[in-house]
Structures are given as C-alpha cells and as structure tokens.
Prior knowledge:
By secondary structure, the chain is of the alpha/beta class. The longest helix has 20 residues, at 10-29. Strands 1, 2, 3, 4, 5, 6, 7 and 8 form an 8-stranded mixed sheet that branches. The chain has 2 domains: 7-54; 61-311, 2-enoyl-CoA Hydratase, Chain A, domain 1 (Alpha-Beta Complex). The radius of gyration is 22 Å and the shape is globular. It is built from 14 helices and 8 strands.
Amino acid sequence: MSSFTLSFEKPVLELENKLHELESFSKAQDIDVSHEIERMKEKIEATRAQIYAHLSAWQKVQVARHPDRPFTMDYINNMTSDFIELHGDRIHADDRAIIGGFAKIDGRKVMIIGSQKGRDTKSNLGCNFGCAYPEGYRKALRLMRLADKFNVPILTLIDTPGAFPGLESEERHIAEAIAVNLREMFTLRVPIIVTVIGEGGSGGALGIGVGNRILLLEHAYYSVISPEGCAAILFKDRAYADRSAEALKITAQHLLEYKLADEIVPEPRGGAHTDHKAAAENLKKVLLRHLEELNGQSPEELMNSRYDKFRAMGVFSETGTSA
C-alpha cells in the first residue's frame, strides 16, 4: 500500500483511517465487530473503484507521476529472471536514467530497456529524475543493436518527463542522439514492443519508443509536451495544466481511440502503485501474448509493419467547398 495520497484519494484515506480506528477499538475492548469491519472494507473498495473509474486527464497524469509507482527496475525484478544489466554507450558515460540488459520472461530471452527514476533525493540525482542525457539514448541503441545481432526481441519501458534539456545535453548533441535512435529503430530486424508505464514525455520518450506494438498502462500518459509546458505556452500560466491535459488528449484511452496505441494494460484497482507485483503480472501476460503474435513474422514483415504503423499516425482527410 502506498504511503503517499493524491488529493482526489482523500475519501479513501478517510475511510481507511476509520477502519484502523475500528480495528484498534475491537482489539482494545475485545469486542467482535468483524461484520462492521468487513462492511468498511467493502465500502473502501467501492469508493476507490468509483474514483478511479472517473479520473480526469489531469488526475491520470498525477497517478502516472505517483512517487510510489513501479519503475522499470520494479518491473524487471517482478516479471523477469536472469537479468544481466549492460552499461555505458562506449563513447562518453553510463547514463543511469536509462537501464537495460538481457533477461528472460518465462524462459523467453529478451532485451529489456527502460527509463529509470528514483524514489528519494539521492537516487533521483543518480538517475537525473529519469531525464536521459545523449549517452542514455546511445546506450539504448547499442543494446538494441546487440539484440538485433543475436535475434532477441526488444522490450522498452517508458517513464520519463522528457530528455534532459540542459547545457550538457546540447553540448553532447541530444537532438542528434534521439534522431538517430528514431531512424535506426526502424531498421532493426527483431520484434520491438514499447510500453509506457508512467510518463511518456516528448522526444525523451520517443527515443526508445518506435515499435511494432505500442502499449500503455491504464493510467499512463504519452504526450508531445507536459500539461504544465502546454499551459505555459497557450495560457501563459502553468496553473492551467488541468485544462491543457484535457485538450492534449494524452491519456491511454485517448491514444487508443486515435489509433496511436495498440492496447491498454489494466492496472490494479487504485493504480499500479498499490500493488507492484500485480501490475507486473498484468504487463507480463500482455507482453508474452504480443511476443507470441510477432514471433512468426519475418524480419521484412516486422520492419515494414513498424514503418507503416508510424507513417499512418496523424493522417487526416480534409473536405471543403470551392468558391
């Protein structure tokens, strides 16, 4: 259970506090109130289900950013075995904002690469709050090429507000690093499955986001810009982030509707942060199914379907009357 409560979760927190009081009273007074306790638990679950069934786009963004939400290493630990982490881009450094290596899922070999955030100040500084430098994308590409060489499927997990926008990134050519990844991922001859597990921010996400399948967790979001950044540009005030989130259509449900995603992976009731193991198990089942579907395709079919998928994005028709 998470120790952090979002503002819209307060009704659930109040009920949980009452439940603890009831349980403490029962124990202290040696009175059997098991029936009332059971009713309280049912009410808590019903309230949580009601809240999470009607989240706004901005509330989903808050869930995607929840500090207790499982990160890439949590998914690796809970759904893979024999993980061997590989380090460095062989050019500059080892960027801890992107991690990856060979692993097995139910005995099937995969290359798994993902964004990594921290849970406290020290670990967040170590991985730069999940915002990768150019060397992070170059490391990811090195690992993807290695997977391609040994005919191993690639799984990428995205959870980043964006690539690091500072001077160091510009000095080491962040735009070029992301652009090369976009180009090269279309040429890989193995299946690529992309999953947005939390935040999917701008080019920082797209740098490891070209795949044959694009999956999103139920409360993840994927956007060209953060709601706050959009609000600052359109409304000249970041306080309008909630309006921007609605306008951007960035939730998993919107992306599926617009055919920018292939499937939504369900999360445990109350969000992935409430049960890391269950969230990983849900994702594992979906990944294995898609791996099985892609397994029979030839390298040419994989490359062509990947290319066609992204060429079809953003296509629209326009009609008008002549003067």
